[in-house]
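From the shared-data thread, chain only:
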Amino acid sequence: DVIRIGPNELHFAAPPAFPDIYNNRNRWDKDKTLYHSFGEDESSFGFLTHREAKERKDVLTRLFSPKAIEEAQGIVQEKVHALCAAFKRRGKPSDLFYAYRCVTMDVITCLCFGQSIDAVDEPDFKAPLVEAMHISTLIFPFFKHFDLYRKMIMSCPPRISVALSPETAGLIRMQQLLKRQIASHVSNPESLAHLPHSTTIYHLLLNPEAYRNKTAPTVDSLYDESQVLMFGGGDTTANVTMIGTFYLLANPATLARLKEELREAWPRLEKEPDLRDLERLPYLNAVIKESMRIGPGIPSGLPRIVPAAGAKIDGHPVPGGTIVSMSSWFVHHNESIYEKPEQFRPERWLNSGSINLEKWLVVFSKGPRSCLGMKSPRMV
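Structure, as C-alpha cells:
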C-alpha cells in the first residue's frame, strides 16, 4: 500500500491515504521538482505555497463559476457545431484523439484569451498547436529529472527551438502570440475593450482591485497562467471525452439508453436544450462521471511535502519534509469502492449507494489545490 519511489518520496495506493494527503485542512506545499518542471512557476498550478496559490485561485475561480459557465454556453455550442460540421465535411472516420483536442482547444483559447485558433478546420484535425502540445507532453518527464536540459530548452530563442524540434513549431507560435497579446494588454489596458467578450483571463487578472495587495500579476506570471489554462483546459477534457466515446461505442446498450434519454429531453434538433436542462439528465450525468472515473485526466500522483511536524497517512507515521502523493487511478480502480472497476458501468452512479461513490470521485483532486475547472468537462 505504500512504496518508496525516491530517496525522500512515498507513493500510497490504499484509498484512505487520499483524503489524508488531499483535504481542505491541509496547507502542504507542492514539490518543486515536479511543479517547476513545466515552466509555469508563477501560476495557480506552479505556485508552491498555499498562500501564493490562494490569491490567484480566488481571482480565477470567477472564470469557472456556475454563472460564468452558463454565460459561456454560446461559445461552447458554436465550437461544437464547428466540430460537427468538420465531421460532416470529412465524410470518413476521424481520429477522435485529435478531433476532441481541437474542439477543446478552440473553446479554451476563445474563453480564456478571446481568440480561437479554429483548430477543428485543420485537415484531419492535425492542428499544429494540438500536435505540438501532444509531443511536448512526452518531454516533460525529462524536464523533471534533468533540470539543466529543461533550462537549456526553455531558454532557446523561438527560432532555434523550431529548428531543433520542428514538430513543436505550432506550440511555439502560439506561445509567441500569447506573449505579444499579454504585452499589448499590459502596456495598453484599453485594448481589452476590443476582445470579443469581457471574461477573458486578462480582464480578470489585470484588474488590481481583484487582489488584496492591489497589484496585478507580472507579464511573466500572466504568460505562465495562460500556459496552465491551455494545457489543463484542453488536453484533460478532451481525453475524458474521447474515453467516454470509446466505451459508449463499445457498449451498444449503454449508448442506446443515453440516446433515448437525450431524444426525450431534446426532441427537436434545431432547438438545443439549456445547460441546466442537460445537468438534470441522470443517465447523461452518470455517463460523464463514469468517463471521468475510468479515464482520469492526470494519472500520476500530485506530490505534496509533509510539514515539519509530520503526519499520519493511512495509519503510517510520515516524518516532516517527506514528499508524498497518490494517483487517483488507485482510488478509481479499487474494488472495495467500485464493483468491477475495469468495466464501464454508468449505472453504478444511479444506484442507492452512489452517494458514497461521489466522495471517491477524485479526478479533480481534493482540497485547496484542486482543479479550477471542476465544472467545465460537463459543458462539452
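The chain has 18 helices and seven strands.
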